[in-house]
Write a structure and sequence with these properties.
Helices cover about 50% and strands about 10% of the residues. The chain is α+β, with helices and mostly antiparallel strands.
Length: about 650
């Protein structure tokens, strides 16, 4: 456990003006209130906030963040209140502790709707002050380091999945690459321990076989650069087991086919030296095609800058070189903590979100505002967070960063929402191109707009950014709502007239609570959309009306099924009266009740216990339950080579307006 004076020394090493007295008070305060509490490991509970603070000193964060780390569990796990924190440590620390406490209470459950809503709360919390995320990431890192003490394997897996899906990508987004790598690798060890052990075993073998290979390569690289007058500090490392495995999966390679499992950071004095070093490396060693990336002229969204290249370096080893200045290296290692303005002046991390490298966070907030449902928000934010980037330019030379696969419509919405709504065409590198064209690195994109244009529903089929999809869906919903409102009004007017009553908005207002609506317009839209019928509303307004239904004319679904079964009964050699290609003769099958597949639909067979094979439409939601069981899927199709006529239960959506004539 880190001792009090050691923590103070760590902070003073990078911030000599740090308030030593406040840090000591926070240390003693947290130790006292956590008292005899213990962790699952048996260690004193206070060891956890102390380790979190220690992790943050590695990233050279400000004093308020260190104190928050020490206090981050006091409100949640002790009798301490935010008022106590504010009184002892000030408003800034109190606000940060409150933010971390709110994040701690958010659990990303398996239920998609709850997960989406909690992720929305998570993004809102970190957007108020990015330092809240810094403390939470350090908290998660220490919890992952001690994950093995949790006995419940289901809980360990849930935490590991959260880490892989939420925390590691966020760490990368704020430039904390080292933390991202460790979070991913720790989660990988829980989610796929056998794969990780296998890769570690192979890395150990290569290390033993190559001996001190990394130091030898560093020595030769330093000599090559020194001979050309370049003063450089070179660091070498192996890629993490997860990084190796991810590359194997992404490129469908075996371990033996991977040769660039070593990366070297070449740290030089100036930007000019970066490009000189690149030229020297390319002149001295054969270049690996397709591996050069210039993140100096086009930085990553999180502010990362470097030159990347691959060469067959010393001893003919395929290696990756990352060439950068010391300042760039600091940003690459420490992310947000290295360069935002919270260390100076007032406002702290609240101002950090305005920096260019946090545009992604502002985009997430914009999606929160426009997404109709939590699930839609989760879908769109994952689009924003988890994709590779392409870099494009406006005609004025402004850089626009987009996910890989983005189109001019995505570009237009990234420039401004109004530009996206009004775009009618595009020029890419001076040539007129379709709006669905895929953009590439370095493209100059000119968007042509018209005041008469509105978002087209077809755009949703090819845009890839969450912001674009959110805006398009918002417009479609508004248009549908207007149409449904008009239709619903007409339906209700007719329903009232049929019963001999005068239609008034006042009558509708009286029953809004019955249908859990707050506005008359919303009720009209529900009727127009078919969620409610005009008859239901009339009966709510006038409860005395007796239902007038001619049930004899209604054909129950059960009757249709009976008729269907009888019609199929005499079809010798056919299962359930239908012919399906791709099945073993005599195999039992039935058509799924969830999607009611019809001849002509694209279908798939699922081997079902006790039922033989169940036939689903290819877009049936139920198929998601079988994603992890590919052995149960059968490639089948309709045998349409006969002229028999069968009765099938099908899908039909019918809206009827009962008018004379």
């Amino acid at each position: 456990m880190i001792r009090q004076f050691e923590l103070v020394e760590r902070v003073k090493a990078y911030d000599p003006s740090a308030d030593e007295e406040a840090l000591n008070r926070a240390y003693v305060f947290a130790m006292k209130v956590h008292g005899t509490q213990t962790r699952l490991s048996g260690d004193p509970y206070f060891s956890h906030p102390l380790e979190v603070a220690g992790i943050l000193t590695d990233y050279k964060v400000d004093m308020a963040s260190i104190i928050t780390a020490l206090l981050h569990d006091t409100v949640e796990d002790t009798e301490t209140t935010l008022k106590d924190i504010k009184k002892s440590f000030g408003k800034d620390v109190s606000r940060l502790v409150d933010g971390v406490t709110k994040l701690t209470r958010i659990e990303f459950q398996s239920d998609q709707a709850k997960q989406a809503e909690n992720f929305r709360k998570f993004v809102l919390a970190i957007s108020e002050d990015i330092r809240v995320l810094l403390v939470k990431l350090a908290d998660r890192l220490h919890n992952m380091r001690t994950l093995h003490y949790i006995k419940d394997p289901g809980k360990r897996r849930r935490i590991a999945l959260e880490t892989m899906d939420i925390y590691a990508p966020l760490a990368e987004r704020i430039g904390m690459q080292g933390m991202k790598n460790e979070l991913e690798d720790l989660a990988f060890g829980e989610l796929n321990p056998d794969a990780r052990k296998s890769i570690l075993k192979r890395l150990d073998f290569l290390r033993e076989k190559g001996g001190d290979l990394i130091p030898r390569i560093i020595t030769e690289l330093e000599k090559t650069l020194a001979d050309k007058g370049i003063n450089a500090v070179i660091e070498g490392r192996e890629k993490t087991p997860y990084s190796v495995w991810d590359k194997m999966q992404d490129q469908d390679l075996g371990f033996e086919q991977l040769s660039d499992i070593m990366a070297f950071r070449v740290i030089v004095d100036t930007i000019e030296d970066c490009y000189l070093t690149l030229g020297i490396a390319h002149g001295a060693y054969p270049v690996v095609p397709g591996r050069f990336k210039d993140y100096l002229s086009t930085p990553k969204p999180n502010g990362y800058r470097s030159l990347h290249t691959g060469v067959f370096g010393p001893e003919r080893q395929r290696i990756e070189l990352q060439i950068r200045t010391a300042e760039m290296h600091d940003i690459a290692e420490h992310g947000v903590a290295a360069h935002w303005n919270y260390k100076e002046g007032e406002g702290g991390g609240k101002n950090a979100g305005a920096a260019p490298q946090y545009r992604w966070l502002r985009e997430l907030l914009d999606i929160i505002e426009h997404a109709a449902e939590p699930e839609e928000f989760l879908e769109h934010t994952k689009l924003e967070m988890f994709k590779d980037q392409v870099f494009c330019f406006t005609p004025r030379g402004d850089l626009i960063t987009l996910p890989k696969g983005a189109t001019p419509v995505d570009f237009a919405y990234a420039v401004h929402s109004e530009v996206g709504d009004r775009c009618v065409g595009t020029k890419i590198n001076g040539r007129m191109m379709p709006l669905r064209s895929e953009l590439r690195n370095g493209d100059q994109v000119d968007i042509i707009t018209s005041e008469a244009q509105t978002p087209s529903p077809t755009w949703e089929s090819f845009v890839v950014t969450g912001k674009a999809r959110s805006r398009i869906r918002r417009y479609i919903r508004s248009q549908e709502s207007d149409e449904y409102t008009k239709l619903g009004t007409a339906i209700l007017e007719r329903a009232f007239e049929d019963e001999g009553y005068k239609f008034t908005n006042k009558a509708i207002r009286n029953v809004l609570k019955v249908f859990k609506q707050t506005k008359v317009k919303d009720l009209f839209a529900k009727v127009g959309a078919g969620v409610l019928t005009g008859r239901e509303v009339v009966e709510a307004v006038f409860p005395g009306i007796r239902k007038k239904k001619d049930d004899s004319k209604i054909v129950p679904l059960a009757h249709a099924r009976d008729k269907q079964a009888k019609a199929r009964g005499g079809k010798g050699g056919k299962e359930d009266g239908v012919s399906i290609k791709g099945l073993i003769p005599g195999m039992a099958l039935h058509l799924a009740n969830c999607c009611h597949p019809l001849p002509g639909d694209r279908i798939v067979g699922i081997v079902t216990t006790g039922k033989g094979v169940t036939i689903h439409t290819i877009d049936c939601d139920t198929l998601e339950d079988f994603v992890d069981a590919p052995e149960r899927w059968l490639d089948v199709s309709w045998d349409v080579g006969n002229d028999d006529q069968d009765i099938h239960v099908g899908r039909i959506h019918l809206a009827v307006l009962n008018v004379p004539g």
